[in-house]
Amino acid sequence: MDALGLLRIRVRRGINLAVRDTCTSDPYVVVRCGSQKVKTRVEKDNCNPVWNEELTIYIKDLVEPIILSVYDKDTFTVDDSMGDAQLDIKPYVECLKMGLQGLSDGIKVERFQPSSENCLAQESCIGFNKGKLTQDMTLRLRNVECGEVEVQIEWLDLPGGKGLHN
Ligand SMILES: [Ca+2]
């Protein structure tokens, strides 16, 4: 296994997602990275769905883009797009490499503001959560009229993996 590690993406919820059926949508989230593709379940008839689902992908290098997309499930036609966003994990990985440990839950290590350079809808924080370094992000979806998705990312070292430190 030549992966650096695993990234766990907790897909929490969607906010004000686009309407693709008559007056609502049946949204699900797909995360792609290289040839990997993982997805959440479909939440029927809900533009503010709560998925609270964990998706896990291998990270082979830090330059491969991680793209999160939302689709409306349709029964008889191709699923409609409801926007996408790029998940930038570089600032989080830089924080991990600092090797911070043993800080109390709730301590914020870094904060990032939304800008034209990222897909953030509001301030995003890296902090400790049950002893693990995590980053909470509210992603503003692109290529769509509206919608945001809340996620949390967490790095998992892989036994026998290359890790981040070499
Ligand atoms: Ca539908």
Number of strands: 10
The helix fraction, in percent, is: under 10%
**CATH 4th-level superfamily:** C2 domain
Global shape = globular
Q: Can you list the strand order of the major beta sheet?
A: 4-1-10-9-8-7
Bound molecules: calcium ion
Secondary-structure element order, as H and E? EEEEEEHEEEE
Give the number of domains. 1
Give me the number of helical elements.
1
As residue ranges, the low-confidence spans are none
Instruction: Please tell me how large the radius of gyration is.
Output: 16 Å
Strand content: over 45%
CATH architecture: Sandwich
Intertermini distance: 15 Å
What is the CATH class?
Mainly Beta
At a glance:
The protein is 5% helix and 45% strand. The mean pLDDT is 94.
What does this structure look like?
With 166 residues, this protein is mainly β. Helix content is 5%, strand content 45%. It has one helix and ten strands. The chain has one helix at 90-97, and strands at 5-15, 27-33, 36-39, 50-59, 66-72, 80-86, 108-112, 124-129, 132-140, 148-156. The strands form two sheets. The protein has a six-stranded antiparallel β-sheet, covered by helices on one side. Strand 5 (66-72) and strand 6 form a beta hairpin. The radius of gyration is 16 Å and the shape is globular. The model has no long low-confidence stretch (mean pLDDT 94). Calcium ion binds at residues 20-21, 25-26, 72-74. Keywords: Abscisic acid signaling pathway, Calcium, Cell membrane, GTPase activation, Lipid-binding, Membrane, Metal-binding, Nucleus. It is found in: Cell membrane; Nucleus. Its main location: membrane.
